[in-house]
Amino acid sequence: xxxxxxxxxxxxxxxxxxxxxxxxxxxxxxxxxxxxxxxxxxxxxxxxxxxxxxxxxxxxxxxxxxxxxxxxxxxxxxxxxxxxxxxxxxxxxxxxxxxxxxxxxxxxxxxxxxxxxxxxxxxxxxxxxxxxxxxxxxxxxxxxxxxxxxxxxxxxxxxxxxxxxxxxxxxxxxxxxxxxxxxxxxxxxxxxxxxxxxxxxxxxxxxxxxxxxxxxxxxxxxxxxxxxxxxxxxxxxxxxxxxxxxxxxxxxxxxxxxxxxxxxxxxxxxxxxxxxxxxxxxxxxxxxxxxxxxxxxxxxxxxxxxxxxxxxxxxxxxxxxxxxxxxxxxxxxxxxxxxxxxxxxxxxxxxxxxxxxxxxxxxxxxxxxxxxxxxxxxxxxxxxxxxxxxxxxxxxxxxxxxxxxxxxxxxxxxxxxxxxxxxxxxxxxxxxxxxxxxxxxxxxxxxxxxxxxxxxxxxxxxxxxxxx
Length: 468
Ligand code: HEC
Ligand code: HEC
Ligand code: HEC
Ligand code: HEC
Description:
Strand 5 and strand 6 form a beta hairpin. The chain is mainly alpha-helical. The chain is globular, with a radius of gyration of 23 Å. The chain has 22 helices and six strands. The strands form three sheets. A two-stranded antiparallel ribbon has the order 1-2. It has a domain of 143 residues: Butyryl-CoA Dehydrogenase, subunit A, domain 3 (Up-down Bundle).
C-alpha cells in the first residue's frame, strides 16, 4: 500500500467511526437521510432551510428507471468493448446517485493486486465528497485512484453543497473542471445572473465529459472550441482521441454522456431565459404561505400548472407536441442503430477477408462520426423536450454517415468477393449480450459478492439505498 493510500485509509476509519455514532444518535430522531447527508455533522442546512431540505430528501420517492439495454439491445453491439454494453439504466432520483453507481456493472469490482480498476472519476457527479476529495488529494491523485478504493469516503448523495455555499442560499460551482469549462465557452460562473447560474449548477453533472488519459483520467469537458457537436468532434479528432477500439469493426469510438446542459443551452427555452430550474424546480408555497424553490428535482411536465402555464396555454397541446417529438426522435434513433450495427459487422467481414486500412479508413471514420452523432443525441436524457430540433439534426447526420459507411463497405466487400455478412441477433438483451461475449449473470454474481463483503460492511448505507 502506498503512503498516500495509507493516509486515506486512516482518514476513512475516522469517518467510519463518526458514521456509526451518527447512526446511533440520529437515526431515531432525524431519519437516515439527514444523518448521512452531512457526514455526521449537525446539519445546518436542515435546521435553517427545512422546506428545501425536506423536498431534497423526497427525491428518494423517484424509484422508477428503465433498463435501456433491455429496451434497446442494439446499443449493446454499438458499445461492445466498453462497460456501457454491460449495464445502462435511465436516471432516477438524486437520492440514488451513490447506490446506483455502486451497483452498476459498469463500475465493476476491485481490481486484482497490481491491476488498474475503474477510475474514481466515476464518483465526480454523484456526491459532494468528490470535490472535497479533489481538494484533499489533488485532481490527479483523486482520478488516479480506483473507484472502489474511495468508496468508504463517500458519505452523501447529490447535496446542498453541490450547488450552494454551505449553509447558505448562494449558488456555487464546486467542481474545478466545470468552472473551467464554463469559462472556456465564455460563460464564467461568477459573471452570470442568478438564472444562468442555476442552470450551470445542474451543468456541473448534466454535461458530456471524458476522462483525460494523459492526466490520470481526470474528468474534462471537451469544450475548447465550443460545446456543439462539430466543435467537440473537432476537439476529439485533432487529438486522435478515442475511448476504446470497437472489437468488431476496429473503429476508434467516441462516447457521449448526458449532454443535457449543452442541448438546453442552444434551445428556444434558453433564449427565452427558461432554465432547468424553471421547469424542474418550480416555486411553491409552504403551509405558512411562504414561497420556496421545490428541491424535489423530478420530471417537469407534472408541474405544468405551476410553470409551463406562464407561457403555454394548453397542457394537452404541449403534451401532444412532446409525444410527437419523442416519437419522431425515437424512430430516427432506431433506424440509425440498425444501420450502425450492420456497418460494424460489414467492417468485420471486410477485415476478415483481408481488407487493409487504406481501403477501410473512410468507412471506419464514418462509423466513428455516425455513432458519435447518434450518441450525442441519445445520451441526452429528455432531448425531445430540451431541444428537439438539435435532436433531429444530429440523428439525420448520423443516418447519412452510417449510410455512407455502408456504401463504402459494400464496395470494399465486393472487391474482396464477400457476398454474405453475418449479423448478430439483437432481438433481446440476452441475445445481444451473447453476441458480444458478455455474461451478465457471472458479472452480477461477482458484483453481489463485492457488495456483500465490502459495501454492506464498510461503506455508508447510502451506497445500498433502494437495494435492500
Ligand atoms: C442540484 C442543485 C441544488 C441542490 C442539491 C440544492 N439546491 Fe438549493 N437551490 C438551487 C437552485 C438552482 C436554487 C434557485 C436559485 C434561484 O433561482 O434563485 C436554489 C434555492 C435555494 C434557496 C433559496 C430560497 C429558495 O427556496 O429559492 C435555499 C435556501 C436553498 N436552495 C437551500 C438548499 C438546501 C438546504 C439544500 C440541501 C438540502 C439545497 N438547497 C440543495 C440548487 C440546489
Ligand atoms: C452532483 C451532480 C449532479 C447535479 C449537480 C445535478 N444532478 Fe441531476 N442527476 C445526477 C445523477 C447522478 C442522476 C442520476 C441518479 C440515479 O439514477 O441514480 C441525476 C438525475 C436527475 C434527474 C432524473 C430524475 C428522475 O427521477 O427521473 C433529473 C430530472 C435531474 N437529475 C435534473 C437535475 C437538475 C435540474 C439539476 C440542477 C438543479 C441537477 N439535476 C443537478 C447528478 C446531478
Ligand atoms: C422547458 C422546460 C425544461 C427545461 C428548460 C429543462 N428541462 Fe429537463 N425535461 C423537461 C421535460 C418536459 C422532460 C421530459 C420528462 C418530463 O420531465 O416530463 C425533461 C427531462 C429531463 C431529464 C430526464 C429525466 C428522466 O428521468 O428521463 C433530465 C435529466 C433533465 N430533464 C435535466 C435537465 C437539465 C439539467 C436542464 C438544464 C440544463 C433541463 N432539464 C432543462 C423540461 C425541461
Ligand atoms: C417563460 C416562457 C416559457 C415557459 C415557462 C415554458 N416555455 Fe416552452 N416555449 C417557450 C418558447 C418561447 C418556445 C418557443 C416557441 C416558438 O419558437 O414557437 C417554447 C416552445 C416549447 C415547445 C415546442 C418545442 C420546442 O422545444 O421548441 C414545447 C414542447 C415546450 N415549449 C414545452 C414546455 C414545457 C413542458 C414547459 C414547462 C415544463 C415550458 N415549455 C415552459 C416559452 C416557455
